[in-house]
Amino acid sequence: MTDQQDSLTDLRRAIDGIDDEIVARLAVRQGLVERAGRLKRDATAVRAPDRVAAVIRRVRATAERAGADPALVERVYRTMITAFIGLELTATGLRDRPVLAPARPENAGELLTLQRAAYATEARIYGDPGLPAMVQTLDQLAAELATGPGFTATVGTRIVGAVRGRIEGDVLHVGRLTVAPDRQGQGIGTALLAEVEAAAPPGTTKATLFTGHLSVANLRLYERQGYREERRARLTPQVELVHLTKSLPPG
Ligand SMILES: C=C(O[C@@H]1C=C(C(=O)O)C=C[C@H]1O)C(=O)O
User: Fold this and answer.
1) N or C: where does the chain have the smaller number of CB atoms within 10 Å of the terminal CB?
2) Is the ipTM of this complex over 0.95?
3) Going by CA atoms, what residue is nearest to atom 10 of ligand 1?
């Protein structure tokens, strides 16, 4: 018993020594990861799944040569890299910064949910739960997605904003600019609008969009982005649509 305890003590002392070495090397690794983070612009770049896969392949091969269990080494590394990614996301402030990307057909369901949530505010303003965006079906939304440039703003795995565009001749029709209620007022709508405008093909001379006359936050955003009222049209006795346009730079 005493013998066993003594040898366990010795083994643990040896393990402690190795841990000191590992932690010292982790400190150096942390410095390098933080420097890598400063070179990145969004959360996707921080996560760099291709690089993670390459690191895992490399350390598995290294483990094989060193006589360590590759599966164990992979588990340790995946846990460690997840922790480093967390550190990098916090250090860079990129954790909550939305990532803009082209909308994909498989986003349709989540976009419909987002749209219903975002337009609920509008429905309340106008006292009308039957606004077109509130009663649109999944099929209609999916069809609309296929007709022009659309973008999503994503934080982690959650879509927090979206916009859809449709090109008709030299005009970009911007529609369904939506931001999740808890993420409104953070510049996401502005970023999405700029993204869809930039995606218009060369030769597109103007962008046009509309909103209800009581949607002052929307009107303010559009005016700040250079849109000017062109005309108004009555939609229902309660709602007047304000159509706004903006010239797009040639290119
Ligand atoms: C350090 C980087 O950032 C992240 C952290 C990694 C790591 O800890 O090895 C690998 C890829 C990224 O997920 C990198 O991109 O190289």
Assistant:
1) N
2) yes
3) 52
